[in-house]
Design brief:
By secondary structure, this protein is α/β, with parallel strands linked by helices. The protein is built from 18 helices and 14 strands.
């Protein structure tokens, strides 16, 4: 058990109250007792407790009634139900009302301490996750939503665990799954949280200038180097460097990056002076780096240095249960941002969103909801509002038409029309569609457009 806990025991048997007090006080906990449900509730309403031990069978207010009232007041409270009338029915009913666990009388002090320790550990983790979400919301605004699916809860737990360490982390996932957001969450949980978080787009920097961007250069080191420049690692000293799309860097830069990880030092371009840097490195990729290692385009030693803690973000189509949560979140966000008052997403529209494959993942979903909020003429987003912004509403079939096209069909036609109109120019097409080049190439491949 981590630290002393405040525990309330409610039982009509004096011997049971005393036994629980003695068993749990040995761990340094503060234990209060009440002889019936009414007194227990009175104490509970005046003081904050980490855990409640509650007898089901008591005169007056029953344990079930007390449990229900406690959960209404504090949904996060952890309650362990005890009774001498142990039946499957009573256990199931207590669990449905929110009890953490069920222990029948008689029980040993050891078994009580064991279940209490487990329960307090669960509460501690629950509170830490709540604090993490609150901190991320304070730092990064309303965009912080990870979803409620089991896969994303595992990601959240990994963030909580790895954040306070100084381990390197490799985040893998398709474009738009939120890799930078997870990296920022890890930084926010670390001792470096008040130091810089520096993003390096490994796919967006020109190759011959990339080394200079990372490590800096001295005046006169190459044509155009008119002054000494600090690199990203020096700028992030004491903080975190986030290397986005790490799979795009050349093998020569990989060797220099390996040195940073091993020696914690850099050398500016054109200089022989060694500069010590204290940074944590978090990398992200949408590639299979192990396949890159096999193809000898990525160094094996660097891969293992980067992936001390690997985090894999699932594609949105692999966690469709998160789509309604995210869609409603973005609805609230863009209602506020665009000063709109769209009340809801219709059942039919939500089905369209849930069945769509989302190659652009969360980022693409957010774009679709923003456009729908802006363009809808009613108070509810309907399936007919989910068309891309360049497609006029006259061209879009109504949501109640038997001939209504699937969103994927409309998307394919819209992309193809824009692509042809711009003579197949990738950059201009991506800009016109409001997506990045990588996403556009994936969609062209998916729909067989060339």
């Amino acid at each position: 058990m981590n630290g002393a806990a405040n525990i309330l025991v409610i039982d009509d048997e004096e011997s049971m109250r005393d036994s629980c007090r003695q068993a749990l006080s040995k761990g340094g906990n503060k234990v209060e007792v009440a002889e019936d449900g009414s007194k227990g509730l009175s104490i509970f309403e005046k003081e904050s407790f980490d855990l409640v031990i509650l007898d089901l069978k008591m005169p007056g207010l029953s344990g079930m009634e007390v449990l229900q009232k406690m959960k209404e007041r504090d949904p996060e409270i952890v309650v362990i139900v005890i009774t001498g009338y142990a039946t499957v029915e009573s256990a199931v009913e207590a669990m449905k009302l929110g009890a953490y666990d069920f222990i029948p009388k008689p029980f040993t002090p050891e078994s009580l301490r064991l279940i209490v320790n487990r329960a307090l550990q669960k509460r501690r983790l629950s509170l830490e996750n709540i604090l993490l979400r609150a901190e991320l919301k304070d730092r990064f605004g309303e965009t912080v939503v990870v979803g409620t699916s089991r896969s994303m809860q595992k990601v959240e737990e990994l963030v909580r665990q790895v954040g306070p360490t100084d381990s390197t982390v490799l985040i893998s996932g398709e474009t738009g799954t939120g890799k930078e957001l997870v990296a920022r969450a890890i930084h926010a949980q670390s001792d470096r949280r008040d130091k810089p978080f520096v993003v390096v787009d490994c796919g967006g920097l020109v190759e011959n200038l990339f080394e200079s961007e990372l490590f800096g250069h001295v005046k006169g080191s190459f044509t155009g180097a008119t002054e000494t420049k600090y690199g990203r690692f020096e700028a992030a000293n004491g903080g975190t460097v986030f290397l986005d799309e790490i799979g795009n860097i050349s093998t020569s830069i990989q060797a220099k990056l390996l040195r940073v990880l091993q020696e914690k030092e850099i050398t500016r371009v054109g200089s022989s002076q060694v500069i010590k840097v204290d940074v944590r490195i978090i990398a992200a990729t949408n590639k299979d780096l192990l396949e890159c290692v096999k193809a000898e385009t990525f160094r094996e030693d660097l891969f293992y240095r980067l992936s001390v803690v690997p985090i894999v973000l699932p594609a949105l189509r692999e966690r469709r249960e998160d789509i309604p949560v995210l869609a409603n979140h973005f609805l609230k966000k863009y209602n506020k941002k665009r000063e709109k008052s769209v009340k809801a997403i219709s059942e039919e529209a939500m089905q369209v969103l849930t069945e769509y494959d989302w190659l652009g993942n969360v980022r693409e979903l957010e774009n679709v909801i923003e456009r729908a909020v802006v363009l809808t003429k009613g108070g509810v987003i309907e399936a007919g509002d989910l068309w891309y912004y360049e497609l006029s509403r006259e061209e879009a079939p109504s949501s109640d038409s038997d001939e209504a096209k699937a969103l994927a069909d409309v998307e394919r036609e819209h992309i193809e029309r824009t692509f042809r109109k711009l003579d197949g120019r990738i950059g201009e097409t991506a800009e016109a569609l409001g997506i990045n080049r990588k996403t556009l190439r994936l969609k062209l491949k998916k729909y067989g457009i060339d």
